Amino acid sequence: MALISKYIWFDGKLLTHDKAKVPVTSHAIHYGTSVFEGIRAYWNAGNLFIFRLDEHVKRFRNSGKYYNISLRYSDKKIKKAIIDLCRKNKIKKSCYIRPFYFIGQYGINLHVTKKAPTHVAIFSFPFGDLFDKNGITACISIWRKFSDESTPTQAKMGGNYLNSILATQDAKKQGFDEAILLDKNGFVSEAPGENIFIVKKNTLITPPLSSSALDGITRRSILTFSKDLKMKTKIKNISKKELRSADEIFLSGTAAEITPIIKLEKTKIGTGRIGNVTKVVMKKYSDIVMNESKKYSKWITPVY
Fold first, then answer.
1. What domains appear along the chain, each with residue ranges and CATH number?
2. Per-residue pLDDT tens for 235-248?
3. How far apart are CA 184 and CA 212, in angstroms?
4. I want to staple 251 with a disulfide (CB 3.0 to 4.6 A). Which of 102, 119, 230, 259 is the partner?
């Protein structure tokens, strides 16, 4: 990972890293009681554009509500903090922004309430492609995605992503770039940090949220702008058989953007190259985030 920019935003102030300190007795270190977001900003035509800032900050707050963890700053304050941080660091290249809040010193008390002390931090770093945009390999993980019967699937909590770590370790151990998790019923859910789409007969298909898939902001964006592309879309359960026989497969997410899967274990997907539908989706997404689509200019926030 690239070096984190010099300044971070911590509890209302812009500080250098050495000034932001957290005690080892922080509750989040012991129990994973942290809430996070991943946000992308893109440099183009002399300005830095943050993609879907309002939606990310809204989800940021809502994730903590599942666990009664309080974000003690208004949405307006958090959005301003993110913009101020980019300006303070003089960021003039595409970057990744990580805001998070967590329970601080709270002893070993497992009874978390809204009154539990929380801290908020935001940092950023230059960021390019997470995966090879020419296509990656994937496998179906031996691990299943957890369900709402055990923990809220729509909360972006630090502890929730231990499940993702196991799936990623499994994939890497087998020599694949990424994993695909099934839900408790054996249907396709998502990848460790990305939603998944398949293409069948020029129709975009993605699993429902009932499959334990995250309500991804990039996923929602694709389902919205696909209408402009005159693409048919379906939200339905996807079996392993349907996944393997797909014409195209791609992942979507803030970090991964649009990433094609060209091989699933021993099975070549389509021609073994980026499919035509995926190419169109990738191009449209790129146009939007780079402020080259007037219709979706409301989705981006200029920094300078």
1. 7-126 (3.30.470.10), 136-289 (3.20.10.10)
2. 999 999 999 999 99
3. 9
4. 259
Contact 179, 168 (CB under 8 A): yes
Q: Are 125 and 48 in contact (CB under 8 A)?
A: no
Picking from 135, 296, 298, 132, the residue whose alpha carbon sits closest to that of residue 226 is 296
Residues in contact with 89: Cβ distance below 8 Å, sequence separation at least 6, in sequence order: 5, 6, 7, 124
- Looking at the chain, which runs of residues are DSSP E strands? 7-10, 13-16, 34-36, 39-44, 47-51, 95-103, 118-126, 136-144, 178-182, 188-190, 195-200, 203-206, 232-235, 248-253, 257-264, 267-268, 300-302
Residues annotated as catalytic are: 156
Phi then psi for residue 45, to 5 deg, are 50, 40
- 81 pLDDT band, cuts 50/70/90, is very high
183-224 confidence digits (pLDDT tens): 999 999 999 999 999 999 999 999 999 999 999 999 999 999
pTM listed for this prediction = 0.96
